[in-house]
Design goal:
Elements lengths: L4 H12 L4 H12 L8 H22 L2 H35 L2
Helix pairs in contact: 1-2, 2-3
Length: about 100
């Protein structure tokens, strides 16, 4: 199974948190190997998967995920439309000012 103490501790920690044995073993093994400053691909993919699961659970529990994104999009749309109306009004005022001379 795990060879070093650090690898074994990481494996045990991952298993205690509910990670499957095969994934925990590969992550613990890859994380313990010597590498040139880069995170090994199995570790990166496992971290990405775990982060996406965390985001999904957080979104479902708090109910903020999609709703806040929709609110931001709506605010951007309102701002864009207001700028468009303002530009049109300025253009019209400029035209009316020229015609009045």
């Amino acid at each position: 199974m795990a060879k070093s103490k650090k690898e074994r501790e990481l494996f045990d920690l991952l298993r205690a948190r509910g990670l499957r044995k095969k994934v925990a073993k590969s992550v613990a093994g890859a994380a313990n190997k010597k590498h040139d400053g880069r995170v090994p691909k199995p570790v990166r993919s496992a971290i990405g998967d775990l982060q996406s699961v965390i985001a999904e659970v957080e979104g479902r529990v708090t109910g903020r995920g999609k709703r806040s994104q929709a609110a931001k999009k709506a605010a951007q749309t309102r701002k864009r439309k207001a700028a468009k109306r303002s530009a049109a009004a300025k253009k019209g005022a400029k035209t009316r000012a020229r015609a009045g001379r």
